[in-house]
Amino acid sequence: MATTMEIASVLAGVNVCFLLVLTGVWVRNYTVFKSQLVLGLVAFGGVMLTENVVALYFFLTMQGFYAMSSHVQQVVLILRALEFMALTFLTYVTVK
């Protein structure tokens, strides 16, 4: 059970790294193009970054909260893995 949450924590940390890269690229692009679409991407990156940092904080400080149900742990891991895959594709096409 603890391994499931450790993997979810690692994925949240990697997601934070991807989002830092993405948001940095989008901020740089916004300073050049001043496009509302790019500004929307900057806002999206900021919100997703905040969500992942808060999730990581909860994973690390409130493990007892997630320990009650292995089903909850599996769902959290699946959601983090799906987000990881989406951010992997988005980072790839953005940095490419």
Write a structural description.
With 96 residues, the chain is mostly helical. It is 92% helix and 0% strand. The protein has 4 helices and no strands. It has helices spanning 2-33, 36-61, 63-66, 70-95. The termini are far apart.
In short:
With 96 residues, the protein is mostly helical.
| Extended strand count | 0
Helix segment tally? 4
Largest sheet: none
Give the terminus-to-terminus CA distance.
Answer: 37 Å
- Overall SS class: mainly alpha
Low-confidence stretches: none
Strand content: under 5%
Order of helices and strands: HHHH
Q: Which overall shape is indicated by the principal axes computed on the Cα atoms? A: elongated
State the helicity in percent bands. Answer: over 70%
Let me know the average pLDDT: 94
Task: Give Rg in angstroms.
Answer: 15 Å
Keyphrases for this structure?
single chain; 4 helices; mainly alpha
How are the elements arranged and paired?
Blueprint: H1 2-33, H2 36-61, H3 63-66, H4 70-95
Helix pairs in contact: 1-2, 1-4
